[in-house]
Amino acid sequence: MRLRFVLAEVDAGPRYQTQMAYSISRKVGSAVVRNRIRRRLRALFTEHLGVDESLPLSAALVIVLPGARERTYAELQGQVLELMKKVEKSTRNKS
Fold first, then answer.
1. Which residue in 11, 26, 53, 55 has its CB near the most CB atoms, within 10 A?
2. Can you give the pLDDT at residue 59?
3. Are 5 and 55 spatial neighbours (Cβ–Cβ below 8 Å)?
4. Residue 30: is its pLDDT beyond 70?
5. Angle subtended at Cα 8 by Cα 6 and Cα 11, rounded to the nearest 5 degrees
6. What is the distance between the terminal CA atoms of the chain, rounded to a whole angstrom?
7. Could you give the angle at the alpha carbon of 64 between the alpha carbons of 59 and 9, nearest 5°?
8. Could you tell me the pTM of the whole model?
9. pLDDT digits (tens, 9 = 90+) for 54-87
10. Residue spans of alpha helices (H) in 15-72
11. Rounded to an integer, what distance in angstroms lies between the CA atom of residue 84 and that of residue 30?
12. In whole angstroms, how far apart are CA 9 and each of 12, 25, 71, 87?
């Protein structure tokens, strides 16, 4: 899984809404599989972004690779947390 993101403007205010998009290729699986992965990722990112308000993301694109089909919810959660740590690290470096 990969994540591309755009940082929010400094004057975006305390209540900006992060826009999330998911790119899930047909190589990942059927429509049922892709929708299940999208629902899981939406729940995970909503949960994580709601808790961590220090990440100033205005938009993000999650690119799902074919290996995601075999991942359990817990494994996807681990990947999301890993991605968010990378985002946090790269935003600290840009500050």
1. 55
2. 85
3. no
4. yes
5. 160
6. 25
7. 10
8. 0.81
9. 667 778 899 999 999 999 999 999 999 998 888 8
10. 31-51
11. 27
12. 5, 31, 34, 16
